[in-house]
Design goal:
By secondary structure, the protein is α/β, with parallel strands linked by helices. It contains 11 helices and 11 strands.
């Protein structure tokens, strides 16, 4: 049985994490991935501090999209994840741009429900599997898809989607890899969102246009809410 479809311990059960917040209710990996699929869009959030993170989370929630992938591109991502999880318990919060096992441990200890990586790292995948959280590694080629499958992963992040071929490459890869679900990220926006969501093998897309850095820095959370609501509307229309 694939690790992705098995019922495993939830965040906080990672061996080797000295900062664990303690045991939490066990959760199914597939249930988390199912929530991502129903959302259709995974906002890729880059913030400088907890205040910005909470502002963005509130705006996403108000816009009808209670999902956030907080990236480890900035220091303090773990604290941001922990704050959002505590303040918005109904929000599905994950960690993005995770590049090593240490960051996996930090993210899970903070309460992250899923992990996303820009590439395919065996150590990142294994750490997430041991912690019992879904991991969505980045791939760009058929060889990387095969390597992911060998690790028990059948949901992958196509990255950078716009550079490696966009919807066309997903269609091509879906031929030999019919069991694989894709989360295209990089170059996805409101304009081409329907092109991706119209593909049966696309679980969801990752994007940052709703949470543009300029809006975050300016504290324009009203515009983030507006863009988020628009994205939710596009998802609904694309899957009607």
């Amino acid at each position: 049985m694939s690790v992705e479809s098995s019922s495993v311990a939830g965040p906080g059960g990672s061996a080797g994490s000295s900062t664990s917040r303690g045991p939490v209710e066990p959760a199914s990996v597939e249930r988390v991935l199912g929530r991502l699929g129903r959302a259709g869009v995974v906002p890729v959030v880059v913030v400088d501090d907890v205040g910005q993170g909470l502002g963005v989370a509130g705006a996403l929630d108000e816009g009808g999209l209670p999902v956030a992938e907080v990236t480890f591109r900035r220091a303090g991502a773990g604290a941001v994840i922990e704050a959002i999880v505590d303040r918005h318990p109904g929000m599905l919060v994950g960690a993005g741009t995770v590049v090593d096992a240490r960051q996996v441990d930090e993210a899970v200890a903070a309460g992250a429900s899923f992990v996303v990586s820009p590439g395919l790292s065996v150590s990142v995948v294994r750490a997430a599997q041991e912690a019992g959280v879904p991991v969505v590694p980045g791939v760009a080629t058929a060889s990387e898809v095969m390597a992911a499958l060998e690790l028990g992963i059948s949901t992958v992040k196509l990255f950078p989607a716009g550079v490696v071929g966009g919807p066309a490459v997903i269609k091509a890869l879906s031929g030999p890899f019919g069991q694989v679900r894709f989360v295209p990220t990089g170059g996805v926006g409101a304009g081409n969102l329907p092109d991706y969501l119209g593909l049966p093998s696309v679980l969801a897309v990752g994007g940052s246009w709703m949470v543009d850095r300029g809006l975050v820095v300016a504290g324009d959370f009203a515009e983030i809410t507006r863009r988020t609501a628009r994205a939710v509307s596009i998802v609904a229309g694309s899957r009607a």
